[in-house]
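Before our next group meeting I need something from you. Please put the record directly below this note.
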Amino acid sequence: MVSALTLPECSFTDDALWPSLTGEDPAGAATQTADAQKAVASNQTAQQPAAATVANSQPPLGTGNFEPSGVTAGTSTGTFVGKKVVELREELRRLQNNISSQNGELQKLRAQLVGNSQRYHGTIAAVNARLQVGTTPGNPILVQQFKSAQSDLDRLSQDVASMNGLQNSISNSATMSSFLNESARASFSISGAIDEDHRQLAILEDEVNRTDVLIDRLFKEVTNDVHRQTNYVSTERANLNLMSAGIKAGEIYGGSLLNVAMAGSGAGVQVTAGVPLSTAGRRPLLVVRFDRNEVPYKQALYNAVSRVLEKRPEAVFDLVAVAPSEGGQARVALNSNKSRRHAEGVLRSLIEMGLPSARVAVSAKTAATARVNEVHLYLR
């Protein structure tokens, strides 16, 4: 119904005037030729994001394999220190067995994450491909695929939770390794030892140190995996929320607006809209004219906001409900109430698209130039 909203290539200013949305025929004529219809459809397809770019690929997992080298066997010398060495050696052997089990669990969780992610993205790609060419609103096939994708993402979330529990277990192993290291060093100062005791203690201390380094590497890699996968799951949940809105409308939008802002800034942006600013002298990014019951504004709204966020990730917006000031007091009050409801609907659409409500300040006014109820979107 409307053309894609584009920003100036070299710079961005608040004076960029975006197309208005009305219930009128965008072709400006009662009839259209088949060629013109094909051209419009082709143009709209080019303006929409490719399905492959909607879902983010899974971030890379670590590739380390952390198998302990084992514990060197020793002989009992019969001294007190010799008995202490035997005890420490058994403790180290149990610790290394734990590490081997933790490493096995890590490799298993990585395989599960990859499998669940591939299944999830396969489902998402199928949904996006259908939305890309257009479909009926609330298509039951897409609804079922959406539920399947939700289940896949839940499994991914469970895998990340299990990996987080593994991280805590590795932390306990690190504590035990530090204790063994201190005990081995302290044993050198115990009186009554023979040369063989100190020789075996030196070997044991080296193996404890190597085990400590292995645990440190294991812990860091698991920590990085947990951090990346947690952010990944959070991002995909936001994208699924937007996909849900797309399935309801029967069209594709793109990635969550919050993810667009974060991708543009390289980090999360914390901005609050605060009190609405005066719109005097400011040109709106988008004008939605509600001159009929159903105005399909969502795709144009998404395009407008996403392109702004690509240039200004920290951007906040003013959403203004505009009602005609003509007519009696009762008519003006009625139009004002309707206009506010329209603005609330636009705000809900923005939130469904992933834009935090704190990024939007909502206000209302009447205007003599307005002929129907309108909603104006301004860049702060």
In short: Confidence is low (pLDDT under 50) at residues 1-20, 22-55. Residues 265 and 313 are 6 Å apart (CA to CA). The longest strand covers residues 317-324.
